[in-house]
Each structure stands twice: as C-alpha cells, then as structure tokens.
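no rush on this but wanted to send it before i forget. what follows is a protein written twice so to speak, once as letters and once as structure tokens for the fold. mainly i need to know what kind of three dimensional shape the backbone takes. thanks a lot i owe you, the record is right below.
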Amino acid sequence: MSIVLGLRCPGDAVLHTIAPLGMGAAAGHCLVVDLDPWSPPLPGERSLAVLIEDGPRRSDLDVARRGVAVLPNGGVDWETAAPLVTELCSRWERVVVRVPPRWDDPPWPVVPVELLVPEFPAPSGPAVFQALLRGTPRPGPGVLLPPVSRAIIRSILRGRVEPRWGWVRAWRPVWEAPWG
C-alpha cells in the first residue's frame, strides 16, 4: 500500500523547495512529485508537463530500484496532472507531493512545514518545524528539524541529497506521524 503525503511551506520559498527532497530522501525509496506550478522548480529531467504532453514512457512509470526520483512540475495544474499522478502514486510505496500553499483540499494528508523565526510567535498545530538556531525547542506537536547549512541547501538545489545528513535523517519520523 502506498503512503502519499502532501507537503507545503507557505512561509519560505527555499524551504518549500528543499523540504520535499529531504523528506523523500528520508524515506529511502520515494517519488517526489511537484504540483506547485507557481514556486521555484524542483530539480529533475522530465517534468509532469512533458509526461502529460508526450505521454509517459514505460521507464517513466517503472519504479526506480532505489533512491529518490523527482518529477518537476513544468507548469501544469492538479486537474491536468491528476490521472498521471494517481497512476504514479499507485506504483510507488512512498510519495511526497509538493502542493501549493493555498490548495485547500488536496486528496492526501498534508504535512505543513513551518519556519521557526526567533522572536516571532510559534505556529500552532502539528507541523514539521524548521529551526534556524541550534537549541530551539519544538513549539508544539510534530517534528523539529535542526538548522540546515548553506552547503546542504546548495547541494539539494543542485539535485544532490545525501540520506546520511542529519537534516535528512531528522525527517524520518514524519513518515510515521498521523497527518490525516
């Protein structure tokens, strides 16, 4: 059975870009699908738009043997992408779907990712909390991520994510938490 989790980070474009890749890498073997056509693109070769326009090849539908596969958006909305995304979700054991910050009713549970800015009120409700400073306490139910270095951010934006990084390992409990 597939585990499909949406993910959104409305407060920070960089975090909204790297978070799905970190969460996917924490799963070990995962597909990351981008359904947010208005945000910075995720790294990847063939996009949802290309697969929809040209039709998916057999290799696009086959599940990779290991690691994280990334499917950037390319400018399509949910209604256009729904049949292909549904098919892909049925084939992969774990899927992360980056959703737009303002999508009110996606068909999967959504993991909110909140940036913890010192001196600002803490967000309420269960979430993944991204600390900016070491020693920041978790403000509520959910998962606290350690600060992420610029070197790791640069590496992720270039399409290289290492499951051994502490920041990636901190995502693992997200897969076990109830987000529904």
